[in-house]
Amino acid sequence: MTRFLFLFLFVITSAFSQQKIETKKVSSTLSKNGITIQDDYSWLENTSDKEVADWVTLQNNISEEKLAELVKNYNFSFKIKDYDYLSTNGLPSKKGKYFYNFYRIEKNKPSVLYYRENLNDLAKPLVDPFDVYKDANVVLSGYFPSKNSRYLAFKISPNGSDRQEIKFKDFANKKYLDDVLTDIKFSNVAWNDDKGVFYKKNSNKEFFAKDSTYQLYYHKIGDIQSKDQLVFDTSNTKSNFSFFTKQNKLFIVETSEDETTKNYYYSTIENESFQFKNFIKDDKSNLELLNIINDKFYFSDEKYSWGNISYFDINNRTENTILIPQVYSHLLVGATFLENYIICKYDNMGKYYMSIHDYTGKFIRKFEAPHSMDFQIRFYDEKTNELFVTFYSYTISSLNYKLNITTGANDIYFNDFIQPKPTLFPFNYFETKTITYKSRDNKDIPIVIIHKKGIELNGNNPTLLRVYGGFGSVSSPNYDTGLLHFLEKGGVYAFAKVRGGGEKGKNWHKEGKGLKKINSINDFVDAAEFLIREKYTNPNKLAINGGSHGGLVVGAAMTQRPDLFKVVISEMGRLDMATLDKYTSGIHHFDEYGNPNNKEEFQSLISYSPYHTIKEDINYPTCLIITSENDDRVPPFQSYKFAARLQNRTAQKNPIYLKVNKTAGHSGNISSYEKRVKQQSEFYSFIWEYLNN
């Protein structure tokens, strides 16, 4: 009866305000380092409580109703589907013997993994997640053929979370094996020939508890999981680690809990008796491991911020050789190691190119990407000495090329199943530029700006400004048909490459992490001011968006300068920095954010924490706060608390919507094409509505 009355009162309230939910306050405090913080909404952290579940349902009812109305009002859904149909597809990936592609066979079911024996063969289905689980919400998150392509291991997320399962398929008879590995988290799959796999196992009992992925196991094909051998364990030291197999060795890179030192190990694996050699001990130089080939350890040195390639013999750490020096102001984005070549991918202010060298460091050839496009090397044909590469940009779908390393020839590639299509728009229909703006402390911050060519920039253009800016991550173009329609309708898109990211090298990351994290937020606010000052837009026409770490940046920017923005969309945002060490993966990110158990660092964390910097007397911009109920990377209740506190203030007049994706994790609703289109349509319809009304 009480719940019915609550629902009835809620319906009456929502009829007038469309979004107002009165969330109860339960007084509680958090004390750390002699600092006490009031937290009236910590009760929302108990996601298993029925009252919390009912609260989420009420929030979703309002947001879903509003979003459905907006999608109906605008044509983004139709255009996204239309543009998707007209867009080109990239080349398959080659792993081992076969070529692999994902295809969406049914729009309301997960993608199916297909394979080809030859590039011009008809693709054959290999793994259909729905066929395995009979559930349209499962996500196929990775696949790993064994050394001789006898078996395929594949990872499945049954509920969208980071906690996954590994299953196997036999290539010869196309049957799924009985082997099932559960409680997999933050793990790749590394094969020992065709005999078995190495994987990381999580031991959490509570879904959102501090992460406890500290054990590496070995599974022999045909065994049950309980027989699997524990080969590496950091449960006592709480150190994180990564692993891979290479040339009959298992390599492990262990990072200390405080992220200051690394240990490197290897063990031979043929006899399945694992004895590790610690070939680099307590290293503090923060090397970026690129590859290990024939006992040569290839790395990028922290001393060269833009990225170089050096190496040493794993049996003689003292002798380092610089193979490919850094190219100042040209960022080394990545390196591909072939049998006879090393291919370096560079980004020079939005101009991408590859530089090919042999293993003596000798320069062989350079290929520049057309139309300022990014690219992925899909595979290499040793017989013809050709690279098969897919180029793409924000506004141009896949262009597939083969590049001859010997002659320098570059030819667009088609076959019976990858056929030519006319481009959606002429290559010069949209203007894309990467320029810089000045931060408040006089740093040159790169920003990508895209708009329709010839559009009048009169300070009145609806503009979407995005950001990530963390973990040294290097942003790259992402082809998005929803964005295409936004631009076609006269919108302006911008992406700010703020400090904390890696777009200007390793030092760029250092200048926006730990006690300097505020630089990421300040740079983003400065980007908004730049766009307004240069007449791209104005505060009534500016929307900001970021996900995960980007959600933190936009949330903090909004609480710092609410006057600059009309619309804020935070997706899976880290919005409550005071509880960083309390839940899920936060304990692995002290180096990025700061350690809340250190007083100075805790003070820094709460100084910009979006949840803690909300003021009672401010009417903040219209918000759409998006999270997922199974996000065990950034817990959804961080978004719950942020939304509740924003909503429950008398000064708040602009609507605050909370949308919680059901049966989904950190990546959102991606299990089927229909869900992806719905997600995109809601996003762009919401922005368009509030930037134009």
Describe the structure.
This protein is of the alpha+beta class and 693 residues long. Helices cover 20% and strands 34% of the residues. It contains 12 helices and 38 strands. The strands form 9 sheets. It has an 8-stranded mixed beta sheet, sandwiched between helices. A hairpin with a 5-residue loop joins strand 31 (430-438) and strand 32. The two termini are 41 Å apart. The relative contact order is 0.11.
Q: Which regions contain 5 or more consecutive residues with pLDDT less than 50? A: 1-18
Main sheet attributes: strand count, strand direction, barrel closure: 8 strands, mixed
The number of helical elements comes to 12
Oligomer: single chain
Structural class: alpha+beta
Distance between the termini: 41 Å
Share of β-strand residues: 25-35%
Overall, the morphology is globular
> Looking across the biggest beta sheet, what order are the strands in?
31-32-34-33-35-36-37-38
Mean pLDDT: 95
Computed CA radius of gyration, to the nearest angstrom: 25 Å
Overall helicity: 10-25%
DSSP summary, beta strand count: 38
What would a concise description of this structure say?
Helices cover 20% and strands 34% of the residues. The chain is α+β, with helices and mostly antiparallel strands and 693 residues long.
